[in-house]
Automatic annotation (TrEMBL):
This protein's name: Resolvase/invertase-type recombinase catalytic domain-containing protein
UniProt-recorded Gene Ontology molecular function terms: DNA binding; DNA strand exchange activity
PROSITE patterns with a match to the protein in the record: RECOMBINASES_3
Domain Resolvase/invertase-type recombinase catalytic: 50-189
Matches recorded under Gene3D superfamilies: 1.10.287.2170, Resolvase, N-terminal catalytic domain (3.40.50.1390)
Bilayer-crossing regions: none
PANTHER family: PTHR36172, RESOLVASE-RELATED (PTHR36172:SF1)
A family per Pfam: Resolvase
Length: 190
């Protein structure tokens, strides 16, 4: 297929793909014809890999919701004829960029399909970036409920402010605890 078609299919610009060709950074084999056309040679069959379910709730008091979410994801996958190889459950804020289970899932090249109930279960912001990055690797995200859960921006802003406040106050609290521990050690030391 032509380089322009390949780039469009992967969600990148033609200019980026052309630069990769010139720099020798193309992730797939290609050839340049005598007329100058760049043809990309992709593997014929799509890559077989694991289908993973990803379920997340924001707090531990919603663990029952987490289990129900997994059941709905399994029903969706079974209805599509997908063979689930991995189920990942996580409790934590969607704004936390250091969710260990999600990071492991995204970095696992054997996982070719990730199934989530809503886009915001994966991440409330920047879903499109994750989706494009996975698509460029020949991987995909399936969303059970494509429509947004709520169009009201107030809960999103509240969650952002809560996350920022937690980081700020968490640091202060940690500093205070460390200072108290050092003072206690100095008092005990003769």
């Amino acid at each position: 297929m032509k380089l322009s078609e390949w780039a469009k299919k992967r969600g990148i610009t033609y200019k980026t793909a052309w630069r990769w060709v010139k720099e020798g950074k193309m992730p797939v084999p290609f050839e340049i014809t005598p007329s100058g056309t760049i043809l990309v040679h992709e593997p014929e069959a799509p890559r077989e890999g694991l289908v993973a379910l990803y379920a997340r709730v924001s707090s531990s008091d919603r663990k029952a919701d987490l289990e129900r979410q997994v059941v709905r994801l399994l029903e969706f996958a079974n209805a599509r004829g997908l063979s689930v190889g991995k189920t990942v459950k996580e409790v934590g804020s969607g704004l936390n960029g250091r969710r260990k289970e999600l990071l492991k899932l995204l970095s696992d090249p054997n996982v070719t399909t990730i199934v989530v109930e809503h886009r915001d279960r994966l991440t409330p912001f920047g879903f499109e970036y994750i989706e494009a990055a996975l698509r460029a690797q020949g991987r995909r995200i399936l969303v059970v409920e494509e429509r947004e859960v709520d169009d009201d921006p107030v809960p999103d802003m509240t969650e952002v402010l809560t996350s920022l406040a937690a980081r700020l106050y968490g640091r202060r609290s940690a500093r205070r605890r460390a200072k108290k521990a050092l003072e206690a050690l100095q008092r005990e030391d003769p």
